[in-house]
């Protein structure tokens, strides 16, 4: 396995959206040896909890815990402290919670790190506009005027000013986020659909290659891998496309 492959595979975050640990373990087995990041979201976390996250870390995976915290600052601080104690590599909050809430997440991380020096500092990122949100929904249902891109950039700038490491957005916005916030600001981009695959509930989608060319730091892929007849082949094809981008 060459370094370039390793580096690119590490930028693929596989969403383990399963109802129980057994099914998630089956996929891990299937993808054994591919050095990708693993994402535990609400479905799996609410079913399998912190034990499953610890198991992933014991097996040496990089873990993104995607619980999208959005609450009062004090509660988010406590949540961030508990999450940091799990030893994850990345977790997220909603930028819509505002600057004080995002700063509280960082304070929670610091509190955990101070209590245990063997813990690592996770990347803390904020969700901007969900990739399932289309322009008309943003304007007419949610009532936020302007383009999705403008809303995403505003959230990204707010996130940066709060001191977080980056944002979750669509890869359609990656280049503008890098322009506005700099290349060290992390862009984590779900809504990835290889050419010809089912879009499902995602609205702002791009292919893996387009996402990498737009400057995404990481791409998040769930169903195009988990729902594939041959998940390993699907993951390898995505990494190949990323490498060729
Ligand atoms: O924070 C996320 O990971 C996230 C944010 C977002 O705006 N859109 C989004 O799809 N996600 C997550 O990314 C994954 C995408 O999965 P697929 O649509 O199956 O590829 C899911 O686990 C979502 O929860």
Report on the architecture of this protein.
It catalyses: orotidine 5'-phosphate + H(+) = UMP + CO2. GO terms for molecular function: orotidine-5'-phosphate decarboxylase activity. Keywords: Decarboxylase, Lyase, Pyrimidine biosynthesis. InterPro entries: Aldolase_TIM, OMPdecase, OMPdecase_AS, OMPdecase_bac, OMPdeCOase_dom, RibuloseP-bd_barrel. Belongs to the OMP decarboxylase family. Type 1 subfamily. 40% of the residues are buried. This protein has an 8-stranded parallel β-barrel, surrounded by 5 helices. The radius of gyration is 17 Å and the shape is globular. The protein has helices at 3-9, 21-30, 42-58, 73-85, 99-115, 135-142, 148-162, 174-181, 208-213, 223-226, 231-244, and strands spanning 12-15, 37-40, 63-69, 90-94, 123-127, 166-168, 186-189, 218-221. It is built from 11 helices and 8 strands. The chain is of the alpha/beta class and 245 residues long. It has one domain (3-244): TIM Barrel (Alpha-Beta Barrel). It binds orotidine-5'-monophosphate.
